């Protein structure tokens, strides 16, 4: 019976495979050229001046004209500005200002008062007001601290 | 390898003209190939042609350690280079790109998505005539150059539309590079006069702004006059201006 046969012999199978391979190889195309030898080039071309001359960041501001740009300048020119830190600090001290130190002091003086009042409790507020009045008179009248008195039996 | 270095060394600081050839014989390369071949960088103005290097600009040959050579030249025409930051003028809005004049042979394109925080819904507010500080992401001789106003992390870092007031003018590319060089003498002298802000593009455009129009114009004129002045002349002029202005 045919289905009981062992199939083809090993050598016949090999022969068939070879034939098939040859047909495939014949159909393949290839370029008839000498082998290209990739030569490693040690010359690199660079079209930009930036790496050659170590050019810095293009936006600049001086003496605090535009503080945002000055921050960016520090950030973008960071790697090569280590030795410049001293001069930078000097720049900051002579940065011109719209608000003088006196104005700043006056503003903060009143600010401290109003903030203190804001965070104080109602009871402390009255005492604060008294203190303010007393500052000029120098009367050492201190109120005793109010405490909870335990009821007696 | 050594031969080409020696070939260059003879001319460092000297004038080279387009067509000058730096040649080295192949035998020395063979000798050196078993030693670790170090890379040699030829910068702007130099061009590799097979095994020789040609000069394609006229100027002074410069060298930086360890092995970088380029030609420092005076020119006014800007040729876009990938990665360089320039000042552009928006000339047209068309659909999803802006056309930007950068002073090159062709206008560059700038996508409306290439701004910090821009989305399809949230378009940046850019009008025709605005100045942008942007950097090239595509720049080669066969394609239209393309600009972006963000870095690889999506941050603006000072790029984008700027210059509500102030004054824009053109200088030669050489002067623009001198202004951008670290420890630039011109900038150091100038910042002593009065506070001002400046944007320098590698395409030779410079934008300045000071406290008043008068001061802005003084800075602009001083910068323009720096083109052809020696250090002594410049310092004398700046000193005169500082005395006159104060």
Automatic annotation (TrEMBL), chain A:
What InterPro entries is this protein classified in?
A: MPP6
GO biological process: what's one of them? maturation of 5.8S rRNA
Which residue intervals make up region (Disordered)?
A: 79-98, 118-153
Q: Per its UniProt entry, which superkingdom is the organism in?
A: Eukaryota
Regions of biased composition (Basic and acidic residues) lie at 125-135
PANTHER family assigned to the protein according to its UniProt record, in alphabetical order? M-PHASE PHOSPHOPROTEIN 6 (PTHR13582:SF0)
Write down what this protein is called.
M-phase phosphoprotein 6
Species: Bagarius yarrelli (Goonch)
UniProtKB/TrEMBL annotation, chain B:
Where is each K Homology domain found? 166-213
Example GO biological process term? nuclear polyadenylation-dependent rRNA catabolic process
Q: Which SUPFAM superfamilies match?
A: Eukaryotic type KH-domain (KH-domain type I) (SSF54791), Nucleic acid-binding proteins (SSF50249), Ribosomal L27 protein-like (SSF110324)
Which Pfam family, any one of them, does this sequence belong to?
Answer: KH_6
Its main subcellular localisation, reduced to a broad class, is cytoplasm
What GO molecular functions are on record for this protein?
A: RNA binding
Cellular localization per UniProt: Cytoplasm; Nucleus, Nucleolus
User: In what residue span(s) does the Exosome complex exonuclease Rrp40 N-terminal domain sit?
Assistant: 43-77
> What keywords is this UniProt entry annotated with?
Cytoplasm, Exosome, Nucleus, RNA-binding, rRNA processing
Gene3D superfamilies listed in its UniProt record: 2.40.50.100, K Homology domain, type 1 (3.30.1370.10), Nucleic acid-binding proteins (2.40.50.140)
Q: Which InterPro entries match?
A: Exosome_RNA_bind1/RRP40/RRP4, KH_dom_type_1, KH_dom_type_1_sf, NA-bd_OB-fold, RRP40_KH-I, Rrp40_N_euk, Rrp40_S1
Q: Which GO terms describe its cellular component?
A: cytoplasmic exosome (RNase complex); nuclear exosome (RNase complex); nucleolus
The family this protein is said to belong to? Belongs to the RRP40 family.
Name of the protein described by the UniProt record:
Exosome complex component RRP40
Species per Swiss-Prot/TrEMBL record: Bagarius yarrelli
